[in-house]
Amino acid sequence: MSLPARDSGGDQPFAVKDCALAAIATGRRAHTLRELYDGVSATTPSSLYYHFWGGLLRPRFDDPEYNNDFAVWAFRDFHDETLAERLSVIDPTDYTDMEELRQEVLDTLEERLDEDPVVSWKRAESAFTFIRSQIVVLDTHTTITHPREMPEIVSAMSLGSVFYHFIDARRRPPIGINDFSAWIVGAFPEHTPLAERLAHLDPYFNRLAGLRRQLAGVLADYFGEAAS
Amino acid sequence: MSATLARYQDIVGADVVSHLRQLAAPLAGMKVVHVNSTRTGGGVAEILHMLVPLKVELGLDARWEVITGDSLFYQCTKGFHNALQGTAVEITPAMIAAYEETNRKNAETLREVLQEADLVFIHDPQPAPLLGLCPTRRGKWVWRCHIDVSHPFRPVWKYLRRHVAAYDASIFSLASFAQPLPHPEYLIPPSIDPLTEKNMDLPEDEIRQVEERFGIDPERPMILQVSRFDRFKDPVGVIQAYRMAKRYIPRLQLVLAGGGASDDPEGEVVLAEVRAAAGDDPDAHVLLLPPDAHRTINALQRAADLVLQKSLREGFGLTVTEAMWKSKPVVGGNTGGIRLQVVNHHTGFLVNTPEGAAQRVRYLLSDRDRRVKMGEKAREFVRENFLLTRHLREYLTVMLAIVRGVDDRIEVA
Predict the structure, then answer these.
(1) Separation CA A144–CA A150 (nearest Å)
(2) B404 contacts in A (CB within 8 Å)?
(3) Among A60, A131, A158, A162, the residue to mutate for chain B (most B Cβ within 10 A)
(4) How far is B193 from B391, CA to CA, in rounded Å?
(5) Which CATH superfamily is domain B204-385 in?
(6) ipTM score here?
(7) Which of B27, B377, B387, B409 to mutate to test the interface with A (most CBs of A within 10 A)?
């Protein structure tokens, strides 16, 4: 596995940021699968982002089965488990570009529309409401100068910081990689194995608090092994 | 750290309070005014009682103003409330005149404060015309709508839309509650405060005393609905559900506890209907409580075996959140914000009819372990999602977004 470094990595300390999402109603709703298809085609990238990742930062029941808003709607309101299962396996971490992710969702919807004529006229119990988000990013004025400081700082981080550096980072250059790994590879190449372990954490099936625990665990293990 | 924030930290964790401070820092010193139409009774007043002092603690220059009017004004705004929730209501020209005149009068006293503010939050339709009455305002104005306006009675919405369209932004509790408006429509579900008298832990003997005061037998199962006496809360449907369940659980007791709000003139009429429906059943307790009976409501919620909120229309349903915080599963109407909180088989059950409610009451009362497990899950769900700290976080985020620009990504130095 070859991890790209952050452009500004070098010898710069890691600036810990924090973030919060503001959710905004777009006014677009879908009562049928065709309307959902049209909505996904037309909605903004920030809306797709919100429906795949926003659940981590907003009130939502931690649905044990489906972890993006489209899949939850397909199950709870459209009552189509086949579609819900297919939508739920779409993992946004597989896509470096929101347009690729959009196309995957559209393909999944189209496949379902083609294979079962009933679903094309079926009406959902409640509409899917398209939401977009604004992300507000804040400087915490905390910096990390060496990866050895990370276990303590990461375990006390806000969930907003975890989201910013581990989830949101994937859509900032270098695309598809979390900030911690990119910084370590650039500034401390001797700790590239740590960067790789962090990059292997799967954020999609986790709540942010769980992800923070996992990050702290990987960091503690790595430096514990190095010390022994 | 201030005493109040330290107490929240004990409940939600240090990282959450630190996050609030980060968000509030760029807003320090900003003049923020909230305006609504009652200081007591109802969810909006309760939220403002908690939210405004916390904003002050975080360094904002926040204040809360209340507009006042005569009975015709409140009849009009109650009519608006019902109409926005979908009821065909006749609003007479005299009522509209009272509405507009009341706002004009209140603008005379509030204008200076409002025009000087950096951010003004106008809650619900009652004070909505104030924006048009403050022509030299310098800040951003936000209409905070706590009502489900997904299917409004159109003539009334058409009239109110004229007043709210000019705002810089609006806030709704859920996306499905919103109507198209020509400005950003932010989404913030409300919350409860775990430190207030309504939600704090209570000693067992206080709970027993409240049961004794109202003649509730602690040895027998009790189901409870707490809400204003309002037809949208379907208190008569709750009595029907109780009667159906009681056929199978003869020892069952029902408590319908509600307070009036100073801006709700319809409450007495509905209360009379509810009393008539309850009849002379000694196990059906209809309690009219004063607006400050927070500890009593808290004790009743803790005494209940499960809680109902069988609303036909609901804004968010804070009584659901309160019950869940007290580890009670909820049987709730399949509407509005209740759908966001009650998840079938996890935190309670959503129902559409008195029959459905009766069935779920029987199901839950038949198995104590199941009730306990669902109650524990409900409490953790509230801790993570519906406490005041999350609400405040989202308010601060929206304030930053409104003040700093309209881009999808806003970097605050």
Answers:
(1) 7
(2) 136
(3) A158
(4) 10
(5) Glycogen Phosphorylase B; (3.40.50.2000)
(6) 0.85
(7) B409
